[in-house]
Amino acid sequence: xxxxxxxxxxxxxxxxxxxxxxxxxxxxxxxxxxxxxxxxxxxxxxxxxxxxxxxxxxxxxxxxxxxxxxxxxxxxxxxxxxxxxxxx
Length: 88
Known about the structure:
Blueprint: H1 6-22, H2 24-44, E1 51-52, E2 57-58, H3 60-65, H4 68-84
Antiparallel strand pairs: 1-2
Helix pairs in contact: 2-4
């Protein structure tokens, strides 16, 4: 979506946390693998750029990746994954 489309950007900012809250039970149980897979998809698997300043484009992935709520909900399983992998 274009940066000058303020309605779309506002809706993305509002509905991204709502979607994360709806998915929170799943994120608390299996957040680490889901978040890792999502990051792999966004950064490695030919997904569109999350932020294209030259063309004034921003992706919905930008709001999801920068969400502290998503990070907090994935912390318990991230900590558990670190313990089971021996701190790696």
